[in-house]
């Protein structure tokens, strides 16, 4: 634990770990423990399934293009309500119940995540789907005594809200903070080889080769884009870990073997 004292660890929180009550409590305990031993955790959370459920309840179209939710102004209102409101405050409350002190905000607060419209492939308009254009860490630094919990909603030059993929937001924030580590919680054991076996450690060069060979596809691609951005900007290591396991964060950080895939900038 002394190895990481005063270091920053950015954790992308999503998937099954956000929907199972035991896993939610386990995650909160892990994060609180990190803070108690002098490590600075920063949480960036998703919420795709919860957004989808609300859109369905309200009868609003829930359509995906290029792996991204098409975000009309009406949809953006729901995205922001669920991410910045419901989910963000639930996480803050859970951390509080497990003995920690957290503060929640979105990327729009303090211009934390400046965003611009994501360019589509020309065949469709993704609406208010954004990519991070700049990160201002002033707000995170200002709440250094607390655990920041960040919703991945960005702000455009005209003040318009943008829906940002949480994996990409986490990578950008980790890069801006020069974090010691970036942890991505997923619903798989880690990066898998062509035989479906977990890879314990891998380099960015190996990852790019696997991507070109279509060993890595689908939802893992945005995670690896976030990892790539972070590692190329000075983050020491990134980890893709199985959020379905109890205390997955502590197991990855404080055991020799770890439980997921460690990714190195090489």
Describe the structure in your own words.
By secondary structure, the chain is of the alpha/beta class. It has a single domain, classed as Carbamate kinase (3-Layer(aba) Sandwich). It has 8 helices and 14 strands. α1 (21-36) links the parallel β1 and β2 (40-45). α2 (48-58) packs across α3 and α5 runs parallel beside α7 (220-232). The radius of gyration is 17 Å and the shape is globular. It starts with 7 loop residues before the first strand and ends with a strand.
Number of domains: 1
Number of strands: 14
By CATH, the superfamily comes out as: Acetylglutamate kinase-like
Q: State the low-pLDDT regions, or none.
A: none
What is the residue-averaged pLDDT?
A: 92
Text of the CATH class:
Alpha Beta
So, CATH architecture? Answer: 3-Layer(aba) Sandwich
Order of helices and strands: EHEHEEHEEEHEEEHEEHHEHE
Total helix count? 8
How big a fraction of the residues is strand? 15-25%
Draw up the topology in text.
Layout: E1 8-13, H1 21-36, E2 40-45, H2 48-58, E3 64-65, E4 68-69, H3 73-97, E5 102-106, E6 113-117, E7 129-135, H4 138-142, E8 147-151, E9 153-155, E10 161-164, H5 166-177, E11 181-186, E12 201-203, H6 204-212, H7 220-232, E13 237-242, H8 248-254, E14 261-264
Helix pairs in contact: 2-3, 5-7
Quick structural gist:
The chain is of the alpha/beta class. The chain has helices at 21-36, 48-58, 73-97, 138-142, 166-177, 204-212, 220-232, 248-254; strands at 8-13, 40-45, 64-65, 68-69, 102-106, 113-117, 129-135, 147-151, 153-155, 161-164, 181-186, 201-203, 237-242, 261-264. The protein has one domain: Acetylglutamate kinase-like (Carbamate kinase, 3-Layer(aba) Sandwich).
């Amino acid at each position: 634990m002394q190895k990481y004292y005063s270091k920053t660890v950015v954790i992308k929180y999503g998937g099954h770990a956000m929907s199972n009550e035991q896993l939610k409590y386990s995650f909160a305990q892990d994060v609180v423990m990190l803070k108690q031993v002098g490590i600075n955790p920063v949480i960036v959370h998703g919420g795709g399934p919860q957004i989808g459920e609300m859109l369905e309840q309200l009868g609003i179209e829930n359509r995906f293009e290029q792996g991204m939710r098409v975000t009309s102004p009406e949809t953006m209102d729901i995205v922001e309500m669920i991410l910045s409101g419901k989910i963000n405050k639930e996480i803050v409350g859970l951390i509080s119940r497990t003995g920690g002190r957290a503060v929640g905000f979105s990327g729009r607060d303090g211009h934390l995540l400046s965003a611009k419209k994501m360019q589509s492939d020309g065949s469709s308009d993704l609406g208010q789907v954004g990519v991070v254009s700049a990160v201002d860490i002033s707000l995170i630094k200002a709440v250094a005594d607390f655990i920041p919990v960040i919703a991945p909603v960005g702000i455009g030059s005209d003040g318009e809200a943008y829906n940002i993929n949480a994996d990409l937001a986490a990578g950008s924030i980790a890069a801006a903070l020069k974090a010691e580590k970036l942890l991505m919680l997923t619903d798989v054991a880690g990066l898998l080889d062509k035989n479906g076996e977990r890879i314990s450690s891998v380099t960015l060069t190996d990852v790019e080769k696997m991507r070109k060979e279509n060993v890595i596809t689908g939802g893992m691609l945005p995670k690896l884009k976030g990892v790539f951005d972070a590692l190329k900007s000075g983050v020491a290591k990134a980890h893709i870990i199985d959020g379905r396991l109890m205390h997955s964060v502590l197991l990855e950080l404080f055991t020799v073997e770890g439980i997921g895939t460690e990714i190195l900038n090489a």
